[in-house]
Design goal:
This is Spo0E like sporulation regulatory protein. The chain is mainly α. The chain is about 85% helix and about 0% strand. The longest helix is centred in the last third of the chain and has 26 residues.
Length: about 55
């Protein structure tokens, strides 16, 4: 996946998590799961960009 597409997905997930946090407690399962998914996308982005810099 291209970095720009991954950044779009990160931004969409971030917006979804913020929206969930407005209607649910920060410790709710919905917000935590959304945060975990966002973390995974960010890790994928960082891993990909670091790999591309080394090569």
């Amino acid at each position: 996946m291209s970095n720009s597409k991954l950044l779009e997905r990160i931004e969409m997930k971030r917006e979804k998590m913020l929206s969930l946090s407005n209607s649910h407690a920060l410790t709710s399962e919905a917000v935590i799961n959304s945060s975990i998914e966002l973390d995974a996308l960010i890790l994928e982005y960082v891993t990909t960009t670091n790999y591309n810099r080394k090569n």
